[in-house]
Specification:
This protein has 8 helices and no strands. The protein is mainly α. The protein starts with a helix and ends with a helix. The protein has a domain of 192 residues.
Amino acid sequence: MKKLFAFIALIGFLSFQVSPVLAQNEQDNSTEETESAETPDNPDAEEDQEGADSAAAMDDAEPMEDDAEDDAAIGLEEEEVEEEASFHQIIKQKFIDGDPGFMSFVVIALILGLAIAIERILYLSMATTNTKKLVQETESALANGGVEAAKELCRNTRGPVASIFYQGLDRYEEGIEMVEKSVESYGSVQLGQLEKGVSWISLFIALAPMLGFFGTVIGMIGAFDAIAEANNISPGIVAGGIGVALITTVSGLLVAMVLQVFYNYIIAKIDGITNDMEDASISLIDMLVKYNAKNR
């Protein structure tokens, strides 16, 4: 009986030892079959596989081309930014090359001249009024409400013509001759206010080229000093000194040309307002003469 149990135990032990080995063998066999199935045995399957790989490579190349185009566009934008920045850098470099000591005076002349010109343009624009309309309204007020109504109208109207009208109407009680003198005197005052500061613009127009030429002369002296020190007339030494010297001249001439344009515009504006004041003054005298004759 003991022998029977021992035999059964031996068979069970052997079966437990053999079953893992069989399972391992079966797993190895299945792996080999899978690999053999994945590996094509004919050339057509290999060509299909190569076609699939090439298509995948083309798909990967398309995003790379898009990225290259984007990089090119970004590069163009960066070049444009560099060009814009280079323009400012050129201006800055020219300013430094022209000797900041002299170039600063030229720039100050430009800034002050432009400030005065802009102020005069704004003042003259506000001083410009419809003179014909003012004459008609003054004549109507004088006929309907008398001198006081005309004075009130002129007091509430801006511009030098209205101010001259008010001064003339204010002297009406003293006679027509006093009105004429008052209009003439106050017209000169208004003309002086219109021309206020214009002489400074003409000064900067004349001063800017002088400053440029002065810087040029100083630069030429420096160039000849460099030649004397080097004891050699080298084209590099001469050209460098002359080039730096001429920058101040060019800057001064540019400033003078810009200010000259503003100056001529302002003078033309003043002449137009002055003509309107003279015509309106004559119209005012005629109105008062008619009003005086009517009320006698």
